[in-house]
Design goal:
By secondary structure, this protein is of the alpha/beta class. The chain is built from 9 helices and 13 strands. The structure holds nicotinamide-adenine-dinucleotide. Nicotinamide-adenine-dinucleotide is lined by residues 14-16, 19, 57-62, 75, 78, 81-82, 98-100, 102, 123, 127, 155, 212-213, 217. InterPro entries: L-lactate/malate_DH, Lactate/malate_DH_C, Lactate/malate_DH_N, Lactate_DH/Glyco_Ohase_4_C, NAD(P)-bd_dom_sf.
C-alpha cells in the first residue's frame, strides 16, 4: 500500500498498541526510503470510521490442525468488537473484510456496519484465484495475466474452481491445451485435482512455516483499494452479498468507488453451479445459527 502510493493516508488501528506503533515505524521507514507520498500513522477507531476504505484484518491466526468452529467463534467475537468500536461509519466508506472465515465474518460485519451491501466486500477467494492462475501459468508457460480462471463460492474447503469457464488468452482452456494450441502446453492435459491440491499445499506450507501470508494478502488489499479509489471498474472475484442466500460468498463483480457496481455472469457447468449453491446454503444455515446465538 505504501510503495504503490494508492492512498494519501494509511491509518493503523490494533488492540496491541506496541505492535501497532512498531508497524507504523516500519512502514514509515519504507515510505521514506522510496519517497512514497503515503503518510502512515496510528489512529483511533473514530478516525478509521471516517476513511474512504476500512480494511478489517483483526483476528487471530488459524493454526494448522485447529478446528474451524473454534477458530470461527474466536474471530466472530473479535470482528463484533471491531464493528462496535467503529460505529458510526462514514456513509461513503467501503468496508473490506479480510479476517477469516471471511464469508461468515463479512456477512456479520455488513449487518453491524449500517452500510448498504454494495459497500461491504470480503477478500473472499481473490488470493485463491490468483494462486490457481499462477500455478496454471507455470504449468502452461504463459504469463499469469493471460490465464482467466477464478475460485468461487465459500472460501475454504467448499470453494469451487471454475474450470469450465477457464481460458488462456481468451481461448477456452480445453482448446488452448489441445493439439491446435499445443505450443501453450507442456503437458497435453492439466490434472485439475493435482493443481488444486498444489495450491492448498502451498498455502498451508506458508502458514505452517511463516505463520501467515502477509505478502499475498497485502497484495489482495492493494489491488482492491486501487480499483476502488481510482474507480477503475476492474472485474474482481470477491465475497459479496447474494440476496437469494442472504449471505456473502465469492463470484466476479465490477468494483469501483461505490463498491460493487454490478455482477458478472459466469457460464458455469451444472456440477460447479450446484457445488457453489450447496456451500452457500450451508453458510446461510451457519449464519442463521450464529445470529440466533448472539
Ligand atoms: N481471506 C484471505 O484470503 C485471507 C488471507 C490471509 C489471512 N486472512 C485472515 O486475515 C486475518 C489476519 O491475518 P494476519 O496473518 O494478519 O493475522 P495477525 O494475527 O498477524 O494479525 C491480526 C491482528 O489483529 C489484531 N487484533 C486482534 N483483536 C483485535 C481487536 N479486537 N481490535 C483490533 N485489532 C485486533 C492483533 O493484535 C493482530 O495484530 C486472519 O483472520 C486471517 O485468517 C485472510
Amino acid at each position: 500500500m505504501v510503495l504503490g502510493e494508492v492512498a494519501t493516508d494509511l491509518l493503523l488501528v490494533d488492540i496491541d498498541l506496541e505492535l501497532r506503533d512498531a508497524q507504523v515505524h516500519d512502514l514509515c521507514d519504507a515510505a521514506y526510503c522510496c519517497g512514497s507520498k503515503t503518510r502512515v500513522r496510528a489512529a483511533t477507531y473514530k478516525e478509521a470510521a471516517e476513511c474512504d476504505i476500512i480494511v478489517v484484518t483483526a483476528g487471530s491466526k488459524w493454526t494448522v490442525g485447529e478446528t474451524s468452529i473454534n477458530f470461527m467463534y474466536r474471530n466472530i467475537s473479535i470482528v463484533r468488537n471491531v464493528m462496535d468500536a467503529l460505529r458510526p461509519i462514514s456513509p461513503r466508506a467501503i468496508l473490506i473484510v479480510v479476517s477469516n472465515p471471511v464469508d461468515t465474518l463479512t456477512t456479520i460485519a455488513q449487518g453491524l456496519s449500517g452500510l448498504p451491501t454494495s459497500q461491504v466486500i470480503g477478500s473472499g477467494t481473490f488470493l485463491d484465484s490468483a494462486r490457481l492462475r499462477g500455478v496454471v501459468a507455470d504449468k502452461t508457460g504463459v504469463a499469469v495475466d493471460s490465464v482467466q480462471l477464478s475460485v468461487l463460492g465459500v472460501h475454504g474447503p467448499a470453494q469451487v474452481s471454475e474450470w469450465s469457464a477457464a481460458k488462456i488468452n481468451d481461448i477456452p482452456l480445453e482448446k488452448a491445451l489441445s493439439d491446435g494450441g499445443a505450443q501453450l502446453s507442456r503437458d497435453s492435459v492439466l490434472n485439475r485435482e493435482e493443481l488444486e491440491y498444489e495450491c492448498q499445499r502451498q498455502s498451508e506450507a506458508v502458514i505452517r512455516t511463516k505463520g501467515s501470508v502477509p505478502f499475498g494478502v497485502g497484495a489482495v488489499v492493494l489491488r482492491l483499494c486501487a480499483t476502488i479509489l481510482a474507480d477503475r471498474g476492474d472485474i474482481c472475484t470477491v465475497s459479496h452479498y447474494h440476496q437469494e442466500f442472504d449471505c456473502y460468498f465469492s463470484l466476479p463483480v465490477v468494483l469501483g468507488r461505490n463498491g460493487i457496481l454490478r455482477n458478472i455472469y459466469l457460464p458455469l457447468n451444472q456440477d460447479e453451479l450446484e457445488r457453489v449453491r450447496k456451500s452457500a446454503h450451508q453458510l446461510r444455515k451457519m449464519v442463521v445459527r450464529i445470529k440466533q446465538e448472539a
